[in-house]
Structures are given as structure tokens and as C-alpha cells.
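Subject: sequence -> C-alpha cells, single chain

Hey, anyone have a minute? Need the predicted structure for the following. Not urgent.
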Amino acid sequence: MPATASSHPPLRAVPFRAPTARLALKSESPSDRPAKLDGAWWPRSRDLPVELSALADVLDPLWGRITRLAVNPRHWPILPPRIFVNGHVVKVGWFTSELDPHAILLLSRTAGRRDLLVVPPETAATSAARLMAAVSEETGPPITATALMTAEGARHENQEAGKDRVGDASLYGRIQQSAVGM
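Reply:
Had a minute. Here:
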């Protein structure tokens, strides 16, 4: 019997596309206390529509469809009233006094409210990694996004001034100790 063509098309390789969002999420805590921050996000730019699309690519499968977000406009030059992400509309709100300028609030019908530290895009990789780890590993009392950013800034200034990191009793050291239960 001669070889016949298969009714199925041949398999072809589909290139793997790694997630483009730089994100560190806190694992779900068994405690009932609400967390101040649920994770940290390090966008590549201050272009909110573009960056939100990359973030939603990662978060939609984990938390469910993101339907709304709120930001403090201090660090976002363009705030459209809505953004189209993954084929759906995400409504954008902004609050100057009610929302931490270093955080983003995301709402999902299935996961509810989630707050993320926003690590500025221009942050050095080592500082960004420290901030993301501090949020994702937090086991102590809740910490605000601004407190973490202030502490990291103080730490950076101390390093530039030549102070010893180990002996430094800076704000960052105190916050980090309470954050990771040291």
C-alpha cells in the first residue's frame, strides 16, 4: 500500500515568548490580615497603555481579567480613561491624595483588589531586585510603597557616601528587618 498523506497538518514549531512584565508577587498568605502590597512591578517605561498590556498578559491568567486600575498621576504622563488589553477594556482612574504615588491598584472580578509597588523604570537592576524581593517575601507588618522607595533611596545615598551597608542603621534596614521578620 502506498504512503498516504495524513489528514493532520504537520506540526510546526511555535516560538516561545517569555512574559515581558517584570513582576514579583507575594504568595497567598494564610493569615486574615490584609497586605499593604501584593507584589511589585517593574515596568520598562512610563507608557501606561503599553506597560499595562504586558502586565495583564501575566496577571489575567493568575488573577482573572483585570477590569479597572487606579494610579497616582505623579509618575504617569498619559492617563487615558480606558485601555484595551487582551481584547477587553480596562477602565483607568487616578487619585492624587488617596493612592500611594509608588503603587498601582488593580481590580479583578475574581481576585478583587490587588496593590503593587511600581518600581520606576529607570531604577538600577540591583535596586529593583531588592525592592521586588522585599515585597514578595514580606512576612512582617504591612509596608507602604513609598516607605520602601524612601528606604531604598536612603540606602543608595549611603552607598554613594561610602558607608558600610552592614553597619548601616538606615530606614531601609529597619523596614527590611520588619518586612522579612529578621
